[in-house]
Amino acid sequence: MHRAVCPGSYDPVTNGHIDVIERASGLFDEVVVAVLVNKSKKGMFAVDERIQMLRETTSSLTNVRIDSWHGLLVDYCRDNDIATIVKGLRSVSDFDYELQMAQMNRELSGVETMLMPNNPLYSFLASSLVKEVANYHGDVSHLVPGTVNDRIVKRVAETE
Ligand code: PNS
Known about the structure:
The protein is of the alpha/beta class. It has helices at about 15-25, 45-60, 75-80, 90-110, 125-135, 145-160, and strands at about 5-10, 30-35, 65-70, 85-90, 110-115. It contains 6 helices and 5 strands; from the N terminus they run βαβαβαβαβαα.
């Protein structure tokens, strides 16, 4: 069984994330999408909401499951028998940081990282920018799945 993890904050999941998850699901027997919780960062969505959105938008991918984790990614990989981390790569600036994390994770535990070049359609796309645009009532409906857009619009209205 070749199992991979696609880790991230997913606050919220974007079309760029979905592209990477779909492509990873074609390469591995099982893909776990793990919402990594950063206690010092208050997100737009609670972890349960992020998980719900990921479940809704990946339901057609039968070998993908969603989970969450507080702690080091390498510990999650060890506990869940995962040998490969898959990360999307948007730009050269992403590469610098991703390379450093990949090397650190391998040094800590031997886990390998596969960096998957993003679809160039999404090279500018980041959850943080989606939230910023949406907070100023910009239209992000073409950047995130439909159900995610609905939740963003609702959340922005609630916080005003
Ligand atoms: O979606 P993000 O915020 O770019 O994802 C970054 C994430 C959550 C994958 C990364 O910060 C991470 O792996 N955090 C878990 C804590 C950890 O293992 N830190 C050491 C990295 S070498």
